[in-house]
Design goal:
single chain; mainly alpha; Arp2/3 complex 21 kDa subunit ARPC3; 2 domains; two-stranded antiparallel ribbon; 8 helices; about 75% helix; about 5% strand; globular
Amino acid sequence: MRQSFKKTFFTSLLAVLLVISNLIGLKLTSFFDLTISVDFLTLPFTFLCTLLIYNIAGKKSAYESILTAALIQIFILITYTITISLGSQSVIPDMASAVNELFKVKELNILASLLSFMMSHYLLIYIYENFKKCQKELLGVITSLVAALFLNSTIYLIITLNDYNPIFVVNMLLSNIIISLIMVVILTIMYYLLKENQKEVVKIEKMKIVVDTSKNQDKTIDEIITNSKKTSVKTKKKSTNSDANKKKKYVKKDSKKTVKQSNDSKQK
């Protein structure tokens, strides 16, 4: 797959996962006597998408993808409010009530999700980039994922659960930390399975490559480079031989001059 396709795919997936996380995030479930939100099935994979976009297209494209996902979520938030404000039809009341219940998401939850989403993803890129500069990519992936997941859950819970019992909030934080550690292992494995392999860059200096389309039509770039190297070696040999012949001529002329000078001195 081409890099442009991969970037578009992971950017779209990032936006879709963010929207789905906000829709299913209100549903709570239990995990070993800990209360957790079911958005742990979708939200952590947004960080995987960001890392893959960074690996494919660079930091600037990763920032653009985060902003694109946030703008799409804001657009959907506007449609939320418009949909809820519209009246329900009386022909099929069950379906209308189901639609209203589906889109009955608090704007505060979505705004908190957007704030935590953007801050945690920017922190993810910042930590990963600094570790990658030090050539510690694995440590950078793990550290950035742990920090981003913890920051995301903390900001979201503080904003949305400020009126709840503090014990319940602490319980949610502990459960999110445990789930985050499990997801870090899964995301790290998936990152190294899906990441773009780094290509070796061959630096060619002081070598001109002339490609004849009629002769090199069925040849690969490696064959063209090797052939050009051979021709460059041949030209170097010819130049060295010509230089050696010139030196020999100069030596002969110099020797003839010395012989003539000696003969003239003897005659005198």
